[in-house]
Specification:
Keywords: Hydrolase. It comes from Bradyrhizobium vignae. InterPro entries: AB_hydrolase_fold. The structure is a single chain. It contains 13 helices and 8 strands. The chain is an alpha/beta fold. The protein has 2 domains: about 90 residues, Methane Monooxygenase Hydroxylase, Chain G, domain 1; about 240 residues, Rossmann fold, CATH 3.40.50.1820. The radius of gyration is 21 Å and the shape is globular.
Amino acid sequence: MIAECMSTIGSISEASDDSWYDAWTATAKINRVRGNLAIRDGNIATAQSNWLRAINYHRTATQPLLPEDERWQASVRSMRACASDFLRHHSPVGEIVSIPWICDYPLQGYFLRSNSPHRAPTVICMGEPGRAKEDGLSRFVRQGVERGLSLLLVDLLGDTAGFRLGEIIARPDLETAVSSVMDYLSERDDVDEQRIGVLSDACSSSFVARAVASDGRFAAAACDGGIWDIHETQFLAARRFANQPPSLPLEVSRIARGIRCPLLITLGELGWLKVNRVAEIVHGLSADARRDITLRYFTASETAAWQGHADNPTLANEYIFDWLASKLRVGKRASKSRKC
Protein backbone atom coordinates (compact mmCIF):
# COMPACT_ATOMS: atom_id res chain seq x y z
CA MET A 1 0.00 0.00 0.00
CA ILE A 2 2.86 2.42 0.77
CA ALA A 3 4.41 1.73 -2.64
CA GLU A 4 1.03 2.28 -4.28
CA CYS A 5 0.66 5.63 -2.51
CA MET A 6 4.19 6.68 -3.46
CA SER A 7 3.54 5.74 -7.07
CA THR A 8 0.35 7.81 -7.07
CA ILE A 9 2.10 10.81 -5.53
CA GLY A 10 4.83 10.52 -8.16
CA SER A 11 2.28 10.82 -10.93
CA ILE A 12 0.86 14.12 -9.63
CA SER A 13 1.86 17.18 -11.63
CA GLU A 14 2.14 20.56 -9.92
CA ALA A 15 1.31 22.19 -13.24
CA SER A 16 -2.24 20.82 -13.23
CA ASP A 17 -4.94 21.67 -10.70
CA ASP A 18 -6.75 18.47 -11.63
CA SER A 19 -3.76 16.17 -11.30
CA TRP A 20 -4.26 15.37 -7.60
CA TYR A 21 -7.86 14.30 -8.10
CA ASP A 22 -7.15 12.40 -11.30
CA ALA A 23 -4.19 10.48 -9.86
CA TRP A 24 -5.92 9.31 -6.69
CA THR A 25 -9.13 8.50 -8.54
CA ALA A 26 -7.22 6.36 -11.04
CA THR A 27 -5.58 4.41 -8.20
CA ALA A 28 -8.97 3.98 -6.53
CA LYS A 29 -10.48 2.57 -9.71
CA ILE A 30 -7.63 0.08 -10.07
CA ASN A 31 -8.35 -1.22 -6.57
CA ARG A 32 -12.08 -1.39 -7.23
CA VAL A 33 -11.48 -3.49 -10.35
CA ARG A 34 -9.01 -5.69 -8.48
CA GLY A 35 -11.62 -6.25 -5.79
CA ASN A 36 -14.26 -7.17 -8.34
CA LEU A 37 -11.93 -9.69 -9.95
CA ALA A 38 -11.14 -11.21 -6.55
CA ILE A 39 -14.81 -11.67 -5.67
CA ARG A 40 -15.39 -13.28 -9.07
CA ASP A 41 -12.81 -15.88 -8.08
CA GLY A 42 -14.35 -16.36 -4.64
CA ASN A 43 -11.61 -14.52 -2.71
CA ILE A 44 -13.76 -12.50 -0.34
CA ALA A 45 -11.02 -11.24 2.00
CA THR A 46 -8.91 -9.98 -0.89
CA ALA A 47 -11.91 -8.32 -2.49
CA GLN A 48 -12.86 -6.53 0.73
CA SER A 49 -9.31 -5.27 1.28
CA ASN A 50 -9.23 -3.79 -2.21
CA TRP A 51 -12.64 -2.15 -1.85
CA LEU A 52 -11.56 -0.55 1.43
CA ARG A 53 -8.38 0.77 -0.18
CA ALA A 54 -10.44 2.15 -3.06
CA ILE A 55 -12.61 4.01 -0.52
CA ASN A 56 -9.50 5.48 1.08
CA TYR A 57 -8.11 6.65 -2.27
CA HIS A 58 -11.42 8.16 -3.37
CA ARG A 59 -11.56 10.05 -0.07
CA THR A 60 -7.99 11.27 -0.54
CA ALA A 61 -8.92 12.52 -4.02
CA THR A 62 -11.51 14.87 -2.47
CA GLN A 63 -9.09 16.62 -0.10
CA PRO A 64 -8.71 19.89 -2.10
CA LEU A 65 -12.37 19.97 -3.16
CA LEU A 66 -15.58 21.41 -1.74
CA PRO A 67 -18.84 19.42 -1.49
CA GLU A 68 -20.38 21.61 -4.18
CA ASP A 69 -17.84 20.30 -6.69
CA GLU A 70 -19.22 17.56 -8.93
CA ARG A 71 -15.93 15.66 -8.59
CA TRP A 72 -16.37 15.57 -4.81
CA GLN A 73 -19.87 14.18 -5.22
CA ALA A 74 -18.66 11.64 -7.80
CA SER A 75 -16.05 10.43 -5.33
CA VAL A 76 -18.66 10.04 -2.60
CA ARG A 77 -20.83 7.99 -4.96
CA SER A 78 -17.84 5.78 -5.80
CA MET A 79 -17.04 5.34 -2.10
CA ARG A 80 -20.60 4.26 -1.47
CA ALA A 81 -20.49 1.77 -4.33
CA CYS A 82 -17.38 0.16 -2.82
CA ALA A 83 -19.01 0.20 0.61
CA SER A 84 -22.07 -1.54 -0.80
CA ASP A 85 -19.85 -4.31 -2.17
CA PHE A 86 -18.10 -4.63 1.19
CA LEU A 87 -21.35 -4.84 3.15
CA ARG A 88 -22.88 -7.37 0.79
CA HIS A 89 -19.98 -9.76 1.35
CA HIS A 90 -19.55 -9.12 5.07
CA SER A 91 -20.62 -11.81 7.53
CA PRO A 92 -23.26 -11.23 8.78
CA VAL A 93 -24.34 -9.24 5.73
CA GLY A 94 -24.32 -5.49 6.40
CA GLU A 95 -27.26 -3.21 5.70
CA ILE A 96 -27.57 0.20 4.07
CA VAL A 97 -30.23 2.01 6.09
CA SER A 98 -32.09 5.31 5.72
CA ILE A 99 -32.76 7.19 8.94
CA PRO A 100 -35.41 9.95 9.07
CA TRP A 101 -34.06 13.28 10.31
CA ILE A 102 -35.26 16.61 8.95
CA CYS A 103 -38.17 16.34 6.53
CA ASP A 104 -36.27 16.35 3.23
CA TYR A 105 -32.88 15.15 4.43
CA PRO A 106 -32.71 11.56 5.72
CA LEU A 107 -29.40 10.24 6.97
CA GLN A 108 -27.73 7.19 5.46
CA GLY A 109 -26.07 4.59 7.66
CA TYR A 110 -24.34 1.22 7.50
CA PHE A 111 -25.54 -1.32 10.07
CA LEU A 112 -23.25 -4.24 10.84
CA ARG A 113 -24.73 -6.79 13.21
CA SER A 114 -22.68 -8.75 15.70
CA ASN A 115 -22.74 -12.55 15.66
CA SER A 116 -24.76 -12.65 18.88
CA PRO A 117 -28.12 -14.47 18.62
CA HIS A 118 -29.49 -12.03 21.21
CA ARG A 119 -30.29 -8.32 21.11
CA ALA A 120 -26.78 -6.90 20.95
CA PRO A 121 -25.08 -3.88 22.48
CA THR A 122 -24.56 -1.37 19.69
CA VAL A 123 -22.26 1.57 19.01
CA ILE A 124 -23.20 4.54 16.84
CA CYS A 125 -20.07 5.71 15.01
CA MET A 126 -21.01 9.29 14.16
CA GLY A 127 -18.98 11.15 11.57
CA GLU A 128 -18.04 14.72 12.37
CA PRO A 129 -19.19 17.38 9.86
CA GLY A 130 -17.50 16.68 6.52
CA ARG A 131 -16.29 13.19 7.40
CA ALA A 132 -17.64 10.19 5.49
CA LYS A 133 -18.94 7.09 7.24
CA GLU A 134 -17.16 4.92 4.66
CA ASP A 135 -13.88 5.61 6.48
CA GLY A 136 -15.28 3.73 9.44
CA LEU A 137 -15.48 0.47 7.53
CA SER A 138 -11.71 0.09 7.76
CA ARG A 139 -11.27 1.81 11.13
CA PHE A 140 -14.15 0.54 13.27
CA VAL A 141 -15.72 -2.65 11.89
CA ARG A 142 -13.08 -5.12 13.04
CA GLN A 143 -12.69 -3.33 16.37
CA GLY A 144 -16.41 -3.51 17.08
CA VAL A 145 -17.51 -6.84 15.65
CA GLU A 146 -14.62 -8.78 17.20
CA ARG A 147 -15.72 -7.48 20.61
CA GLY A 148 -19.32 -8.58 20.15
CA LEU A 149 -20.68 -5.13 19.31
CA SER A 150 -23.07 -4.24 16.53
CA LEU A 151 -22.19 -1.01 14.74
CA LEU A 152 -24.13 1.73 12.99
CA LEU A 153 -21.90 4.03 10.92
CA VAL A 154 -23.55 7.36 10.10
CA ASP A 155 -22.44 10.70 8.66
CA LEU A 156 -24.11 14.02 7.89
CA LEU A 157 -23.89 13.72 4.09
CA GLY A 158 -27.44 12.43 3.83
CA ASP A 159 -28.91 10.05 1.27
CA THR A 160 -27.48 12.21 -1.51
CA ALA A 161 -23.79 12.74 -2.26
CA GLY A 162 -23.47 15.58 0.23
CA PHE A 163 -23.99 18.57 -2.04
CA ARG A 164 -26.09 20.22 0.71
CA LEU A 165 -23.46 19.69 3.40
CA GLY A 166 -22.65 23.40 3.77
CA GLU A 167 -26.30 24.16 4.47
CA ILE A 168 -26.66 21.25 6.88
CA ILE A 169 -23.62 21.86 9.08
CA ALA A 170 -24.68 25.49 9.52
CA ARG A 171 -27.79 24.32 11.38
CA PRO A 172 -27.81 25.14 15.11
CA ASP A 173 -29.42 21.80 15.97
CA LEU A 174 -26.99 19.25 14.50
CA GLU A 175 -27.25 17.20 17.68
CA THR A 176 -30.80 16.21 16.74
CA ALA A 177 -29.28 14.02 14.03
CA VAL A 178 -27.73 11.81 16.72
CA SER A 179 -31.02 11.52 18.61
CA SER A 180 -32.74 10.52 15.35
CA VAL A 181 -30.19 7.74 14.97
CA MET A 182 -30.95 6.63 18.53
CA ASP A 183 -34.67 6.61 17.68
CA TYR A 184 -33.97 4.34 14.72
CA LEU A 185 -31.85 1.89 16.70
CA SER A 186 -34.33 1.72 19.57
CA GLU A 187 -36.92 0.29 17.18
CA ARG A 188 -34.72 -2.53 15.87
CA ASP A 189 -35.41 -6.03 17.20
CA ASP A 190 -31.73 -7.00 17.12
CA VAL A 191 -30.48 -4.05 19.22
CA ASP A 192 -30.45 -3.90 23.02
CA GLU A 193 -31.79 -0.39 23.53
CA GLN A 194 -30.43 -0.33 27.09
CA ARG A 195 -26.88 -0.74 25.80
CA ILE A 196 -26.36 1.78 23.01
CA GLY A 197 -23.17 3.82 22.99
CA VAL A 198 -21.89 6.53 20.69
CA LEU A 199 -18.45 7.31 19.29
CA SER A 200 -17.62 10.68 17.78
CA ASP A 201 -15.30 10.18 14.83
CA ALA A 202 -12.39 12.65 15.27
CA CYS A 203 -13.86 14.64 18.20
CA SER A 204 -13.30 17.96 16.45
CA SER A 205 -16.58 19.53 17.59
CA SER A 206 -19.13 19.16 20.38
CA PHE A 207 -22.25 18.25 18.41
CA VAL A 208 -22.19 14.58 19.51
CA ALA A 209 -21.60 15.64 23.11
CA ARG A 210 -24.58 18.01 22.87
CA ALA A 211 -26.73 15.09 21.79
CA VAL A 212 -25.57 12.93 24.70
CA ALA A 213 -26.21 15.77 27.14
CA SER A 214 -29.77 16.31 25.91
CA ASP A 215 -30.72 12.65 25.37
CA GLY A 216 -30.51 10.41 28.42
CA ARG A 217 -30.83 7.14 26.51
CA PHE A 218 -27.11 6.66 25.81
CA ALA A 219 -25.32 4.05 27.94
CA ALA A 220 -21.79 5.28 27.14
CA ALA A 221 -20.14 7.96 25.03
CA ALA A 222 -16.66 8.43 23.58
CA CYS A 223 -16.59 12.05 22.48
CA ASP A 224 -15.14 15.43 23.41
CA GLY A 225 -17.51 15.79 26.36
CA GLY A 226 -18.19 19.42 25.52
CA ILE A 227 -14.50 20.36 25.80
CA TRP A 228 -14.60 22.19 22.48
CA ASP A 229 -17.60 24.14 23.74
CA ILE A 230 -15.73 25.18 26.88
CA HIS A 231 -12.56 25.95 24.92
CA GLU A 232 -14.37 28.16 22.41
CA THR A 233 -16.34 29.97 25.10
CA GLN A 234 -13.21 30.79 27.05
CA PHE A 235 -11.32 31.83 23.91
CA LEU A 236 -14.05 34.26 22.86
CA ALA A 237 -14.40 35.62 26.38
CA ALA A 238 -10.66 36.21 26.59
CA ARG A 239 -10.76 38.19 23.35
CA ARG A 240 -13.73 40.24 24.54
CA PHE A 241 -12.13 41.05 27.89
CA ALA A 242 -8.53 41.35 26.72
CA ASN A 243 -7.45 43.62 29.58
CA GLN A 244 -9.11 41.58 32.31
CA PRO A 245 -9.79 38.05 31.09
CA PRO A 246 -12.61 36.55 33.18
CA SER A 247 -12.13 33.46 35.27
CA LEU A 248 -14.89 31.32 33.83
CA PRO A 249 -16.27 28.53 36.04
CA LEU A 250 -15.93 24.98 34.82
CA GLU A 251 -19.72 24.68 34.89
CA VAL A 252 -19.95 27.24 32.07
CA SER A 253 -20.69 24.37 29.67
CA ARG A 254 -24.27 23.12 29.62
CA ILE A 255 -22.96 20.16 27.66
CA ALA A 256 -20.48 19.05 30.30
CA ARG A 257 -23.10 19.40 33.03
CA GLY A 258 -25.67 17.40 31.12
CA ILE A 259 -23.70 14.23 30.33
CA ARG A 260 -24.55 11.61 32.93
CA CYS A 261 -23.58 8.35 31.25
CA PRO A 262 -19.98 7.02 31.35
CA LEU A 263 -17.79 9.30 29.24
CA LEU A 264 -14.43 8.71 27.56
CA ILE A 265 -12.37 11.64 26.31
CA THR A 266 -9.24 10.86 24.31
CA LEU A 267 -6.70 13.35 23.07
CA GLY A 268 -3.11 13.49 21.90
CA GLU A 269 -0.10 15.44 23.05
CA LEU A 270 0.26 17.01 19.59
CA GLY A 271 -3.43 17.78 19.09
CA TRP A 272 -5.13 21.16 18.95
CA LEU A 273 -6.19 21.32 22.60
CA LYS A 274 -3.80 21.87 25.49
CA VAL A 275 -3.63 18.67 27.47
CA ASN A 276 -3.12 20.35 30.85
CA ARG A 277 -6.20 22.54 30.31
CA VAL A 278 -8.33 19.56 29.34
CA ALA A 279 -7.09 17.63 32.37
CA GLU A 280 -8.02 20.58 34.59
CA ILE A 281 -11.53 20.70 33.14
CA VAL A 282 -12.02 16.93 33.47
CA HIS A 283 -10.74 17.00 37.05
CA GLY A 284 -13.27 19.70 37.89
CA LEU A 285 -16.12 17.77 36.31
CA SER A 286 -15.04 14.54 38.03
CA ALA A 287 -15.43 16.20 41.41
CA ASP A 288 -19.08 15.17 41.15
CA ALA A 289 -18.99 11.58 42.38
CA ARG A 290 -21.94 10.71 40.16
CA ARG A 291 -19.85 11.24 37.03
CA ASP A 292 -17.92 8.41 35.38
CA ILE A 293 -15.31 10.22 33.26
CA THR A 294 -12.15 8.69 31.77
CA LEU A 295 -9.44 10.84 30.17
CA ARG A 296 -6.94 8.97 27.98
CA TYR A 297 -3.93 11.00 26.91
CA PHE A 298 -1.66 9.65 24.14
CA THR A 299 1.93 10.88 24.21
CA ALA A 300 4.09 11.57 21.17
CA SER A 301 6.36 8.67 22.07
CA GLU A 302 3.54 6.11 21.98
CA THR A 303 1.89 7.71 18.88
CA ALA A 304 -1.83 8.37 18.35
CA ALA A 305 -0.83 11.84 19.56
CA TRP A 306 -1.96 13.94 16.58
CA GLN A 307 -5.36 15.59 16.32
CA GLY A 308 -7.98 12.88 15.92
CA HIS A 309 -5.21 10.31 16.54
CA ALA A 310 -4.46 10.52 12.82
CA ASP A 311 -0.90 9.23 13.19
CA ASN A 312 -2.03 5.90 14.70
CA PRO A 313 -5.82 5.55 14.75
CA THR A 314 -5.61 1.80 15.37
CA LEU A 315 -3.93 2.28 18.76
CA ALA A 316 -6.56 4.79 19.86
CA ASN A 317 -9.46 2.73 18.53
CA GLU A 318 -8.29 -0.38 20.37
CA TYR A 319 -8.46 1.54 23.64
CA ILE A 320 -11.78 3.19 22.76
CA PHE A 321 -13.51 -0.06 21.81
CA ASP A 322 -12.13 -1.90 24.84
CA TRP A 323 -13.66 0.87 26.97
CA LEU A 324 -16.98 0.77 25.11
CA ALA A 325 -17.19 -3.03 25.36
CA SER A 326 -16.63 -2.76 29.11
CA LYS A 327 -19.22 -0.05 29.68
CA LEU A 328 -21.81 -1.75 27.46
CA ARG A 329 -21.24 -5.02 29.31
CA VAL A 330 -20.52 -7.14 26.26
CA GLY A 331 -21.07 -10.83 26.99
CA LYS A 332 -23.74 -10.13 29.60
CA ARG A 333 -27.48 -10.11 29.13
CA ALA A 334 -29.06 -6.71 29.52
CA SER A 335 -30.33 -5.68 32.93
CA LYS A 336 -33.88 -4.38 33.22
CA SER A 337 -32.83 -0.93 34.38
CA ARG A 338 -30.34 1.56 33.15
CA LYS A 339 -27.45 2.72 35.29
CA CYS A 340 -26.92 6.14 33.79
